């Protein structure tokens, strides 16, 4: 089951991002702009929000919302510095894209969008220090039409740092022990049998599959995995550098919130 994306929400990089780690800010900006340009080449309507210097991680918009079937569940990050980002995302989704919003009522819930993998058939929710069981229950309540399966991951990792969708019903996963253990849990709990694409470098597992095109990191960043993608993938491939932003995130998926905006918006 393939999703046809129409829009992507991005947030430009604040100068304050340099305070979060050894990030080369100018190179990070070039990489981020290249992502925006590529999304437009693929026919995506890109909305770029201005940077917020008080929220250094605001570029990682995936963490702040989960959008599916014409509605958006607003996430609940456990990092207080990110709470200001919620209002901005809400405004963009509601006023610019006219997408109905669902907010989490449980104050004890923690939910990070980077822990939410939607396959087109079901949700897998990574349980880590970023997302707890109450957060997973919020996803299940927001999208009751789909199975919602909690998957334990390492405390320091988001689920989508380990597995992403690399095609319709194809899961991309790293060859490392931690990634393979997560894959086994997914296969054990899944309601559908997926194909898998295993890549040698774990950092290569975070890809974007957008409207029939696979986007992965450039060969210099994932030399072994680039060969696997070239040999195994039979549809169009595009490559991007994400080396600087990946120092602080799961990779490519972290930097954009992909949206399928239906012609007829759902009422909730």
TrEMBL record:
<dbReference type="GO" id="GO:0016597">
    <property type="term" value="F:amino acid binding"/>
</dbReference>
<protein>
    <submittedName>
        <fullName>N(G),N(G)-dimethylarginine dimethylaminohydrolase 1</fullName>
    </submittedName>
</protein>
<comment type="similarity">
    <text>Belongs to the DDAH family.</text>
</comment>
<keyword id="KW-0378">Hydrolase</keyword>
<dbReference type="InterPro" id="IPR033199">
    <property type="entry name" value="DDAH-like"/>
</dbReference>
<dbReference type="Pfam" id="PF19420">
    <property type="entry name" value="DDAH_eukar"/>
</dbReference>
<dbReference type="GO" id="GO:0006525">
    <property type="term" value="P:arginine metabolic process"/>
</dbReference>
<dbReference type="GO" id="GO:0045429">
    <property type="term" value="P:positive regulation of nitric oxide biosynthetic process"/>
</dbReference>
<dbReference type="GO" id="GO:0016403">
    <property type="term" value="F:dimethylargininase activity"/>
</dbReference>
<dbReference type="GO" id="GO:0000052">
    <property type="term" value="P:citrulline metabolic process"/>
</dbReference>
